[in-house]
Fold these 3 entries.
Entry 1:
Amino acid sequence: MVLVGLAYVAIGLGFAQLPGRGARLAAWAGSAIIYLLHIRYELKGERPAGVAALHTALAAALGACGLAVGATIHAVATATFRGAYGVALVAWPVLTGLPAFAVAWLIASLVARRG
């Protein structure tokens, strides 16, 4: 789970260095692939759908927290820090983790029914 969270951070920070909208779309695509592979990995371990979804969502939330930390560090380094960055440290993981859980649970439940 931690490795997947770090992969999200690496993708987010790595693609943020590239110019253009295509880089953002590539980051989303890369993150989506990791997300789906994580769900698959969790289900191969014979975990129930809820546990697989929880592990997947926690990894996504960890990645969002890492990106919020990266954004905060960048803001401090460029003297553009505002109080909203403190809110982002909590908001980004929550706003990422909750939908990640719901979608992972739905996908894991559908896959479990088929298999």
Entry 2:
Amino acid sequence: MPIEGPGAFAGAVTVSVKGDLLAPQRTRSGSTTATITRVASGWTEVGDGVFVRRYPFYDQNIVAVLGADEALVVDTRSTYAQAREILGDLRTLGAPRVAIVVNTHGHHDHVFGNRLFRPAPIWGHERCVTMIERDGERQREGASVEVPSLAVELAEVELDPPDRTFADRAAIEIGGRAVELAHLGRGHTDNDIVLRVPDADVLCVGDLLENGATPYFGDGYPLDWPATAEAVLGLTGARTVVVPGHGEHAGRAFVVTQVAAFRAVAELARRIEAGELDLEAAVAAAPYPARAAREPLERALAQLRGELGP
């Protein structure tokens, strides 16, 4: 099922490539209706030649798509030490050469390891570059405060944004396999993309979806997010494996529940703006735990006030 929609892949870019302490862990849950074929030394094969490894730090998923004797890697984690861990773990898959990297968005836990994967080209949305260049130092400072044990490692990171960018859609190839990239709209950030491996029916959605924890709304667009999540849903079938940025991989039903939650947040914010509810009542009615529900609602209200731009 190719990525479809108005103007799907019109003008898409096509490229053929040949050739210690953990952060506070979050309890997550999820399941998939798809068949998971095998587990290889910490990697789970969720589709033919598509492997997911779930790292305890931030409960983060890293994906490797294998083609011929090379690999595409989705996201690069927070530090060089964490990036080296990915590279070492790839050896258990036969040490494929990393020929392409894809950044799902510009947050530090997805891009700060980029430099260690060079000279591989790194793909991302054009605004992913903007986010890294504009906010990278702020993100470094914030992560150092959140996880002081990583401050030294974070200090050595050289910001290295994607050098292959697109606005809406791109078609790339890894070892003879087609891979589709698409920006479906604003949600977790203004530069989220999804990656689809058609021949394996695997959809990597970055932090547009999180499994088992409240999504981070701090850079989000809560009024746009429902439609973007619905577009994600439109790319799933009965057996599609959906890999979120954090938490257990899942299936279509998981996406349905996420769409409903995003719709609820947007609707509650509109009811606050209309004077039908106060913030505390909306927090109590939100689909997230009370301690986590305030940020999404406040961010949605800021968007309704026009504070997040057009």
Entry 3:
Amino acid sequence: MLAAVVITGGLAALIVLAVPSRDVAAALEGFDPLWLAPMLASYFATYVCRAARFRGLGVPLSLATLSGVSAIHQFMNRIMPLRTGELAFPVLVRRLCGTNLVEGLTLVLLVHLLDLAAVALAFLAALLAVPGARSAIGPVGTALVAASLPALLVGYLVLPSLGSRVAGRLALRLRDRRPRWAERLEHAATALASVRTVSRRAFVAAVVWTALQWLATFAFFWASLAAVGLSLGPADVIVGSSAAIVAGVAPVAGIGSFGTLEGGWAAGFVLVGLPAGAAVASALVMSGTSFGFALVLAGIAWIWLSRRRSSARDPR
């Protein structure tokens, strides 16, 4: 928590010192609230796509229920330190349908690998249309991003199988000395083997839902820029927001992701040619609205899921 406070405070101070506040205020004055509706629609669409992807990967819950789980999961990621919010998904699906915790955590890791692969692919494609950003990143940076793409996809296909084998071998070694640990590892190996089978069979569907999810995400980013009067092409939006996306998956983030998210966003859009004041203003709009949407949707989802569980326990 202390690290999050330091990061948020430090980056906020850096933004204030580096960017004149009058420039940011001038950009924020042009905010058009009519854009809130398309922003909310595109933001909510990302939850539905996440839910459909998890459903395709074998989580035995309805699309509506998984959308609610995704809402809570994403909000917890925004407020919990050290990415511990990721635990929300496996804990919730275990309560709702009995899915093994190891299986739930593995699914979260696999979809993150697909997410990063999608972002890397979109970023590389967008760089072709943004020469200034391409020259700033340089051939080495471009090559590193390109090399990450096959590595991420291989990780998706290989990780469950590798994890199952390692857990199985450890279970054999610990069977006599630590029977309880051996039993847990055997359960983990079985769960990972199940994930391996489902994830490979559902690979195409998972890729399609991942692509749709990021299409909705970039639409939200584009609408956030348009809300403050900034008109950018799809390639500029993808390149500019990529730094914010990478900052969003950092293991140590600011409070509510404030600081790291805005800093990455502002840096990315300055790279594609936006004035610093406008970049910071759009970062504040994007971050503030996404946090507000996440808070409201997670609250609604929590109330709805709690009532459903109560009704299931008491059919009267």
